[in-house]
Amino acid sequence: MQRYFDIRKGIMLGFFNGREQYDELIEPRQGQLMFDGCDIYWLIDGEQRMSETINNAIGIWLADGSIEEVIFEQVAGNP
Predict the structure, then answer these.
(1) Residue 42 vs residues 61, 67: alpha-carbon distances, Å
(2) Strand partners, 7
(3) What is the pTM of this model?
(4) Strands 3-7 and 67-70
(5) Which of 3, 17, 35, 48 is the most exposed, fewest CB within 10 Å of its CB?
(6) Helix, strand, coil: what percent of the chain each, to 5?
(7) pLDDT tens digits, 30-77
(8) ∠ at Cα 7 (31, 3), nearest 5°?
C-alpha cells in the first residue's frame, strides 16, 4: 500500500546516480514523499525519484514532525 507525505521540515534523502551516492536536502513545498512499504520516493515536478534512504526514516520523520501523512486525494496533481 502506498502512503503519501507532505514535507514539513527539511529532510535529507540519499540518491544514487549510477556512479556515486549523494545526499540532497529537501525543503518544505519541494514535492512530497511516497512510501510503498519498501522504498521511499520523492515526488517532484510530475516525476518520482527513488531514494536510497533507509525506510525506517519514515517513522523517525513522522515522530519529529518533519513529514505529515496525507490522503491520496491531497497529493499534488491529483484531481
Answers:
(1) 14, 12
(2) 67
(3) 0.84
(4) antiparallel
(5) 17
(6) 15, 45, 45
(7) 999 999 999 999 999 999 999 999 889 999 999 999 999 998 765 555
(8) 85
